[in-house]
Write a structure and sequence with these properties.
alpha+beta, homodimer, 10 strands
Chain lengths: 264, 264
């Protein structure tokens, strides 16, 4: 028995998220089905990040156990033949039998893309959130710094989440403006967040709150207050799923810390 | 009677190109239909670039004549309500009655995007061409310089084209490498070409030829020879449509706009 780790990229547009649900198209379901077709044995897939409906990934991570004789690093190419073109396994490798993608220390990096133009741009509509009014990027950059560090992120977690501790560590939040051709009269704004773990909807609420800052409806001080309050109602709305991308997950050397990880 | 110029962005995936054809979904057809619904009068649309099936645009240009009393600059927003979400008019403005988007001097800029990774990346598949083997970007950059200037581009024109002169001027060809997250084990390569005009499939043949250079199957000297030969068979294959984007078209001083130098 070997444990195999997969790095998986997908276009989340057509899926009801990562996690398997009865009667719904999910990324986990598609990967499990493709592995079973390839290997001819039942497979249980455990994913690192249970991305929501419509959220994309370049590097989500999952593991499964198998008796196969296919060399671990060849599984990626082989399983892609059984997957739809909106899911592609990028890498496959053998890991220690006790490695678990959710219970091992990791750094996750998410990127949220905003297209800030007077009129939506069709080729950017699937992988970014369109915002009409001109955003104050420098104000967003200033406010973004507030999230860095270890905080109780209760105010930035979807109501109803059952997770025990809402303390998480964010290593970095970067707000970057990328120019678009002159005709578009605007730019793209990328918010890149990396941290040890994220609560349910945390990145999207963080972005929704920074968007209020960009629109001039909220100051950096009020973001600080929302964080302190621990009240979901004090933070901004949840930004739409299509702008969010799980860029990648990096694992440290330590295995097996039994730690909760939430859904983003 | 007023002549209105539109700047139009579209996702070409679902269309058989710009130009109207019986029984086929075309961008021109969709724009004409939306304008007629908005204005309640028959409309003839003349486009600047007749992009091929599957080619995208940020800033194609078209004109039409109208009796409407809607202020010219308001037409963009108004007509978008009648267009599918994969076409969006970015700008509308009145131009001189003799302005024609194809017969006035202009600089067109195209961008071709290649995703150069061992495995395709689902979120990049719609707007770039995937190439497996590692490309030699520096060799492509060197060979790209050959195209700059005024040349007979017969070798870089689809066979059967009826155009009289195949002499065109390319102002600039730039090959740029954009890093991707580490997990993807590769990069994106963007080839940006600007010129006074382009022959049928010219940018895609130029890219197909540079790809042979990147793969090490062709030297810069052989690109020079292909150009000199004037023979289509001496150049590389036509690169796929989905990687190509018409970024924008700039018209010179004599474009007949009533405004200062029209950046279109």
């Amino acid at each position: 028995m070997k444990r195999i780790r997969l790095t998986i990229a997908y276009d989340g547009t057509a899926y009801c998220g990562w996690q398997m649900q009865d009667g719904a198209a999910t990324v986990e379901g598609a990967v499990k089905e493709a592995l079973e077709q390839l290997l001819g044995e039942p497979v249980e897939v455990a994913g690192a990040s249970r991305t929501d409906a419509g959220v994309h990934a370049m590097g989500n991570v999952a593991v499964f156990d198998t008796e196969t004789k296919i060399p671990p690093e060849k599984i990626a190419l082989a399983v892609n033949r059984y997957l739809p073109e909106d899911i592609r396994v990028q890498k496959s490798e053998e890991v220690a039998p006790d490695f678990h993608p959710r219970y091992c220390d990791s750094t996750k990096t998410y990127e949220y893309t905003i297209t800030n133009t007077p009129i939506p741009i069709p080729t950017l509509r699937r992988y970014s959130h369109h915002v009409y009014g001109v955003l104050k990027v420098d104000a967003m950059q200033e406010a973004a710094g507030i999230f860095t560090g270890t905080h109780d992120f209760s105010a930035f977690c979807a109501a109803g989440s059952q997770v025990k501790s809402k303390v998480r560590t964010i290593y970095d939040v970067r707000v970057e403006e990328i120019p678009l051709p002159l005709e578009m009269q605007g730019s793209q704004i990328r918010i890149r967040v990396s941290g040890s773990g994220f609560l349910y909807n945390m990145v999207r609420i963080l972005v929704g709150t920074l968007l209020e800052v960009g629109r001039g409806r909220r100051t950096a001080a009020s973001v600080e207050e929302a964080l302190q309050s621990g009240e979901r109602s004090q933070a901004g709305p949840t930004a739409p799923a299509c702008g969010l991308m799980l860029v990648g997950i990096e694992y440290g050397e330590n295995d097996g810390t039994d730690k909760e990880q939430g859904k983003v």
